[in-house]
Design goal:
The chain is mainly α. The protein has nine helices and no strands. Helix 4 (61-86) runs antiparallel to helix 5 (91-101).
């Protein structure tokens, strides 16, 4: 019985590794050729496997693309929640940590960003993509607006709207991601972080002193 369970576990682990190998290959292919230009043959070639193996694990290109998007969303969510859990102190600390997280090389990566933007461009046409992207965006937005609202209450900031600030920060992140993708030679993470801190200082001067920019 124990031997049977061990064999089953090994097979499951092997299957998971192979599926991840194919997802990683798909990310590389999409980054180079886009969603429409990527074929199962491309993915198989990138992974060094036969196309039959791709079909065995995912049945179709649509399933493979959906699983790839789901993996990216889950990867982001894991880093997001880990950053939130590990950041101690005030809402201001947590907000800054999350903004910094979006500029980490593990998130602000040209290959991943190319794939994200490719999927975002198809969300209106593919309901499954829209559902996955919307769930990620909604969760991020809700946490951000809660942190911003707490900062506003703590500092008794007048004429500062949590929704507006959250949208502004999200737009800054999107713009920086796009700059990283299309202008890699001029994109500078340090400058991007400074821009975020400058906006936070201008909006919440008591929580983000000038000297800490």
């Amino acid at each position: 019985m124990a031997a049977t369970l061990e064999t089953t576990d090994k097979r499951a682990a092997s299957r998971a590794r192979r599926r991840q190998q194919l997802v990683d290959a798909t990310i590389k292919c999409i980054a180079r050729k886009g969603l429409g230009g990527t074929t199962l043959a491309d993915v198989a070639g990138e992974a060094g496997l036969s196309q039959g193996i791709v079909n065995l694990h995912f049945d179709s290109k649509d399933n493979l693309l959906t699983e790839t998007l789901r993996y990216l969303a889950e990867d982001y969510d894991q880093q997001f929640m880990l950053t939130l859990a590990r950041t101690t102190g005030s809402a201001a600390n947590k907000l800054l940590a999350l903004m910094d997280m979006d500029l980490r090389p593990s998130i602000c990566d040209r290959q991943k960003l190319a794939v994200w933007f490719a999927f975002w461009g198809e969300v209106k046409a593919v309901p499954t993509y829209q559902k996955i992207c919307a769930a990620r965006d909604d969760k991020y937005h809700n946490v951000m607006i809660e942190l911003v609202s707490e900062i506003i209450d703590e500092g008794r900031y007048e004429n500062v709207d949590a929704q507006v600030v959250t949208e502004a920060l999200s737009s800054m992140t999107d713009g920086m991601w796009l700059s990283c993708l299309i202008n890699p030679k001029t994109f500078n993470r340090k400058t991007a972080r400074y821009a975020v801190r400058s906006y936070l200082h201008a909006t919440f001067p008591d929580h983000y002193p000038q000297g800490e920019l």
